[in-house]
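okkk here we go again. third time trying to get the zinc ion bound version out, last two times i messed up the smiles copy paste (missing a bracket lol). double checked this time i swear
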Amino acid sequence: MATTVITNISSLVTNDPSLGEGPLGTVQDAAVVIDGDRVVWVGTSSKAPATDNRVDAEGRAALPGFVDSHSHLVFAGDRTAEFNARMSGRSYSAGGIRTTVAATRAASDEALDANVRRYVREALRQGTTVLETKSGYGLTVEDEARALRIAAAHTDEVTYLGAHIVSPDYADDPAAYVDLVTGPMLDACAPHARWVDVFCEQGAFDGDQARTILKAGAARGLTPRVHANQLSYGPGVQLAVELGAASADHCTHLTDADVDALASGTTVATLLPGAEFSTRAQWPDARRLLDAGATVALSTDCNPGSSFTSSMPFCIALAVRDMGMTPDEAVRSATAGGAAALRRTDVGRIAPGTRADLALLDAPSHVHLAYRPGVPLVSAVWRAGVREA
Ligand SMILES: [Zn+2]
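finally!!
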């Protein structure tokens, strides 16, 4: 297989402290050698070995491709009017999901597939090389399984979220819906997913229901992750830690005990500032989590209702401006943090042996991702060694 060197990188974030300076393992005047889908060499440009092909980064910065560990891309329909109304003063509630459920059920397989393809491509152009996505807008056995099949055509990181909200068909009998989610729906969905998730929130599923659903999924080989403590304080974070979930997502309303649990366990705290931005809600306190020692990931939560952004650079800028993160911490959370939330060691860093996922920035440093908010700085992207954008 042909080897390629990307050389003359002004500043390379490796996320491997053994390769460079500081926690980001930054290498100045760097080069990266790719062989097939893997990184095989990292160092300074002047020491790079001979290769078949050469790409001159012309003094641009580079970093690992972003790992977006939380999105909801299998959907149809449009909620522009809801956003517009909310920005005109009305509050957000979980009920808006029903609008997307109706549109998604009515959509063809081809339309849903085209939608996922479009947003995966949109994210890739902005530097995202690994993207998790979920079901949760079907809420019938057939529609949830269909969503997961479609998602699995685009990513290995597929999450069964039959417990997004109680299906409108079961509005009068939520217990029967939990039976469906943990019974026939799980049977149909488990073969297509890696993860099981629950929206643990007032108006969605309480702690006992969430525990039942996550344990049922775990018994079928799916690893839990939890929508936790987004709109209010609640049991989601403690439940995620108790069950060894890979991630507790949102973490906007945390008690000291919640922070302590995240800091002492293996569950990653995934923060989704696009949701707070798009609902004008209180920001999650990243500083508090980091100071306590928790592992923090940043993700988009890309969905048509509460966070319709696919941009990890936008989330980085918000996290730095409004959540107390340094630029280094935000970049690390959007790369290595996301990888930790997906329990991946092959992505989120650039070192010999990792998958060759890399974004090149039209800037001399990764700090520009926050310093120049809203500017499309990603100028080239490699995913598994293939130049995609
Ligand atoms: Zn979500």
